Every structure is written in C-alpha cells, then in structure tokens.
Fold this protein.
Amino acid sequence: MARHRVHPGSRVRLARIDPDDTGGHADEAAARETLAADIDRLEKLQDALYVESRHAVLVILQGLDTAGKTGP
C-alpha cells in the first residue's frame, strides 16, 4: 500500500489510480488475511494518534454500485 501513500505537499490525481488494482493479491483469501493484519496495525496507530492529539489521517475509499450511495 506504500504506493498509494500521499506525502504532505504532494498532489494526487485520482484518475491515475487504477480502480481495478488488487494490491497484488492472488485471491480473496489472501486479501482477507492482509486486511486483518492491516486492521490490527491501523487500530494501534489510531490509538497512538488519539493520545497525541496532534495529527489526523484521511482515508479515501471507493464505493461501487452497492456502497449505499443515495440519490439519482
């Protein structure tokens, strides 16, 4: 996921990011395993950020047709 990290002061062009990117996972089981480890790490980092009260994290998720969007 390092290739998707945005550094302060840099610009992001979402059109250049492939929405079909699988992150190099061969199948869903491999992706779920990585996801579980990433969630554990994110929880620890979130706790550290909360304690410091100095930084924030912005996470952008792509929602497809069934992502619960409302409107036309």
Observations:
- Residues 15 and 23 are 17 Å apart (CA to CA).
- The mean pLDDT is 82.
- Helices lie at 28-52.
- The chain has one helix and no strands.
